[in-house]
Amino acid sequence: MTGPIQQSLIDQLKPVISEERLGTYLTAAGFDVDRALKLYVWNALIGEAFHLPIQAVEVSLRNRMNFAFADGFGPDWWKDDEFLSMLDEAREADIRLVRQRIRNRKLSPVTGQVVAGLSFGFWVGMLHKRYNPPLWSGKLRLAFPSLPADRNRASLAVASGRVATLRNRIWHHEPIIKRDLSAEYGAVMTLLSWISPEKAAWIRPYSRVPQLLRQKP
After folding, report:
1. Angle at which helices 33-73 and 4-17 pack, to 10 degrees?
2. How far apart are alpha carbons 204 and 168 in whole angstroms?
3. Are the beta carbons of 123 and 65 closer than 8 angstroms?
4. Sign of CA dihedral 53, 162, 62, 65
5. Which whole-number Å values give the CA distances from 60 to 174, 213, 217, in the listed order?
6. pLDDT digits (tens, 9 = 90+) for 153-188
7. At residue 118, does pLDDT exceed 60?
8. How far apart are alpha carbons 45 and 214 in whole angstroms?
């Protein structure tokens, strides 16, 4: 229900949240203003909770892929001509951009900085089928020794793409209240277990996602 005090608060919040964004929560709450505002806060809190498992996936994925790239193209694979020649335009641009950003800080690029500076989208993109023959046909199990026998490069591409989509919505502060977040959490943790079951087991007890899922207004 909407009383005069609640309506006044909504009117005050519209300029800083936007009428369209508030409308998403009002609609989801059946136009119960109190519940809509609670959903807005819960959306932020559940997004915050997802940061831990998603961060665990992103860091693990890039480090395992870095290991495989270094094995095939040397520790400085990101400037190896053979490696660069196989990249699509977007992935090559990603590397140029991160190298330039490092140089703008008056530093000489090294592998650790490049790996950390490349976006999640770069690593997900490197799982595209175009890289299967030249790269993953010989390096997939080296990079991902815990990947189940019935999973392959395509499985990783789909799973990491799904996590990246969720990550981008959260990182850009978009509503995620309409998503099946229990299934999304399961997908994140499954991917992490494919990359490193040890890290998945370590992270799981610290994750607040299950608790917050039960507290949805």
Report:
1. 30
2. 22
3. yes
4. positive
5. 25, 25, 33
6. 999 999 999 999 999 999 999 999 999 999 999 999
7. yes
8. 12
The three-state secondary structure class of 1 is coil
Question: CB of 162 within 8 A of CB of 31?
Answer: no
For residue 51, give Cα distances in angstroms to 36, 77, 90: 23, 29, 26
pLDDT at site 18: 87
The dihedrals phi and psi of 161, each to the nearest 5 degrees, come to -65, -40
Burial tier of 129 (Cβ tally within 10 Å: 0-12, 13-18, 19+):
exposed
Q: Give the Cα-Cα-Cα angle 47, 51, 54 (nearest 5 degrees).
A: 115
Q: Kindly report the average pLDDT of the chain as a whole number.
A: 94
Count of CB atoms within 10 A of residue 37's CB? 20
Helix ranges (DSSP H) in 33-152: 33-73, 81-85, 89-104, 111-117, 120-125, 137-143
Positive/negative CA dihedral, 161, 165, 168, 170: negative
Judged against a pLDDT cut of 80, whether residue 7 lies above it is answered with: no
Query: In this structure, are residues 130 and 119 in contact, taking their beta carbons and an 8 Å threshold?
Result: no
Tokens 């607040």 correspond to 208
Q: Which residues contact 66 (CB under 8 A, 6 or more apart)?
A: 77, 111, 115
> Residue 1: what pLDDT?
46
**Residue whose tokens read 């099946």:** 180
Other C-beta atoms lying within 10 Å of the C-beta of residue 16: 8
